[in-house]
Specification:
Layout: E1 10-13, E2 32-34, E3 37-44, E4 51-60, E5 65-68, E6 72-75, H1 84-90
Antiparallel strand pairs: 1-2, 1-6, 3-4, 4-5
Bound molecules: zinc ion (ZN).
Amino acid sequence: MSEPIKVGDLVMIVRSGTQCRCASIGASNGTVFSVADINYTALLCLACRFEWGPVWCALDKSDGLRAELFRLKLIPPLGELEGADSWEELNTPVLL
Ligand SMILES: [Zn+2]
């Protein structure tokens, strides 16, 4: 199991909302955002008015984006990405 998502994390939406056939709460797969808040809230599909939840959601306050936590994948901080060490080695000046 991956680490829990928390405020300040960078996340990407990797699953579709499945509560109704037209469910898309303004966010599509592949969208990346920084979590500004997490809350437990009911959701309403703006297209068909289907209501469900409450569920745990992550919010991006800058554009009002909201997505259920189960749809999100945590993007690790750059320093922890695989290959960071070798990248550093590549950029180390070579003394001739
Ligand atoms: Zn709907």
